Amino acid sequence: MYFFVKRQRALLLATALSAATLPALAQGAADTLTLDEIIVTAQRRQQPLQTTPVAVTALTAAALADQQIGTAEDLSAVVPGLTLMPVTASRSTLQVGLRGGSEQSGGLVTSESAVAFYVDDVYRGRLAGSNLELADIQRIEVLRGPQGTLYGRNSFSGAIKVVTRTPGEDEWAEVQAGIGSHKEYHASASWGGDLIEDSLGASLSVLFRDQDGYVYNEALDRDVFGQQNLALRGKLHFYGRDGLKATLSVTRTQDRNDGPANLIPVTFPGTYPTQAANAVSTRDATARAGSRYVSLSTAEPDGYTDQTAVSLDITADWGDVTVRSISAFVGTSDGFVFDLSGGIRDPDGTYRPNGLVRDGRGRTDQYSQEVQFQGEGLDGRLNWITGLYYFREESLQVMKDVLVLGPGFSMPVLPQTIDSTTDSYAAFAQGTYDVNDRLSFTAGLRYTKDKKKLDGTIQNYLPFAPGPAIALVPVVREPRFSSWSPKLGLDYKFTDDIFGYATVSRGFKAGGFNGLAVANPVVFGTVYDPQTVWAYEAGLKATMLDGRLRANLSVYRNDLEDLQQTEQVAAGSYAIRNIGNARVNGAELELTLRATDGLDLFANLGLMDDRYKSKNPLSDSATAGAKHLPLVSPWSVQTGFTYETPAFWQDQARLRLSGSYQYQDDYYSTVANLIVTDTVGLFAASLALLSENDSWSLTLSGKNLTNRSYFTTAPSNAALAVGEPRTWTLTAGYKF
């Protein structure tokens, strides 16, 4: 009942927006203030957004700036149904949820996302470093729903594609610098142009940001949860010979942060529940220190992520066939130290961690090679693509804990090593046949085979537990997984401005190993099985009011099988288990409106209804009586505007005002449904002073303008993560 009441409120909001604006717009439909056409590559070839049979949120560089999308985490403010937030281990590593698929333990080298991340068509296998600083970006595409045929590798419920700017005939040079709240200062610069006219282009970009934390650690007597980022990217683009193009890209990013120091120690009223029916809400949590922005841990928080990425993208014409090769290497080093409890203050006034402090250091090297062949046939009616893909990942992570037994008494315990290797092979093909000028049929198929190996060690017992002598136990596993991922679809152009599609597709996410085992070789050595999804989707994409209104609607049903979820399985140990089968039904609506000259509006609505079809009787979900999947919100809404004034000051300047509001309904933080994350609505806005030709700008931006205090996630009942309070930045920019 709660879901349907919330859904009615959301639908009323969307209806009110339409009722208030459409009649007025209809009177002015004869003018030519059309929205700009957006070209996307969701199907691995260039297509207009409005005739692409995929649910895609496409954000241009201008849209990213207007809506203050500076990191990957910010995308959840503008994409319906998408949840992105930092994990407990590091601000640069994300947990993700979309259409029922989720991953909440991204800090481990054994974890793989249910939503695939791509940068310039290169798959990023690790969630470590996934909270990208979005500098010098041309476009971002968020593909919702399984992308198993064309993208494969863990695109179980969607894919996030970041497309960076590539040099060519157009030249640019620009710089930005600014300050902000929490002693922030940031700067960026970018240059691109021809080294050899009409033949070889080059570009270079750099970004630096430093910000103090917004959480005060009482035990350390300083602010924590700060972050420092450095990102460098260089590109060479050869395009001087007919049919041959090659782009070499080298990226280096460095992130230094205070780890998860935003974990605030809390207490809940009464007895903490063991049944989902008695779930507690984060709104009822009381901060132990009296403030949601005060931590008590004596553990020095620490986190870092260093990443180097090199890719070579070559395209050549081979008769009527276009051949593309994408070769890439991504090396990631990361580490974290955190107190999951947030600390405790004893009656005598001393501070200590309230349990274990975890220390982890890891390194992952990934290599990938993709070869594509594209072309047309049957007198231009058939558009086809086929290819081969290889991916190899080598990871080593070493973890240990510090056990605090009392004031001044602690000891290092629980050493664990994870040495893992993944080899993934895939072959794919997809074709779209135009039956006539309006009707098209699509069929595709991908075969994936994964070979994984774990060679690790783990302690056999917790300290002081009964049993034989404590020892390190070797654990070796070599599982293999394979899957077919088909796709069938129909597209129909009802008119030149209304496009409809229906698809049936299958998504696949391989099985793997449990890195969150603590002193438990059995849990560590238990391999979980793959999860799959059959997805049924229908959509309409309409361009109305002489091109001034873009309305995209998608409805879907995802049947999830052998669903992978993290749950507690033993004292101190967590494991990913196949908890059962579930179904997620949903609808997503995206509206973009050019209301008048200079005024653009947008509104997004996402609805989701999830339920279990069957459960593993030994799972936390079954024993606790849980009814819902984690990170699934019944509804979410995002709305906003951008308004640009006519030129003033002797036609030398303009003002651009942008504002947005986002709200995501309450969701469960754990698979056992014992904690409900209470959400709040967030307002953001920016005001920019621009020159008439955009050569210079001065922008004042703010987020969480009403300064709402809220918890973002609930990793345990001892400590909660707190959201960022009101922030502001002031940035000056110049384009040469």
Task: Give a verbal description of the structure.
There is one protein chain. The protein has one domain: Maltoporin, Chain A, CATH 2.40.170. The chain is mainly beta. The chain is globular. The strands form nine sheets. It has a 22-stranded antiparallel beta barrel. It contains four helices and 47 strands. Strand 14 (215-217) and strand 15 form a beta hairpin.
Under CATH, the topology can be stated as: Maltoporin, Chain A
Number of helices: 4
Instruction: Indicate the overall shape.
Output: globular
Q: How many domain modules?
A: 1
Question: What is the share of helical residues?
Answer: under 10%
User: What is the overall pLDDT average?
Assistant: 88
The total strand number stands at 47
Strand content is: over 45%
Assembly form of the protein: single chain
Task: Specify the CATH architecture.
Answer: Beta Barrel
Through-space gap between termini: 57 Å
Which structural class do you get from the secondary structure elements?
mainly beta
The main pleated sheet reads as:
22 strands, antiparallel, barrel
Tell me the Rg in angstroms. Answer: 26 Å
Q: Any low-confidence stretches, pLDDT <50, length ≥5?
A: 1-30
- Regarding CATH, which class? Mainly Beta
CATH superfamily: TonB-dependent receptor, beta-barrel domain
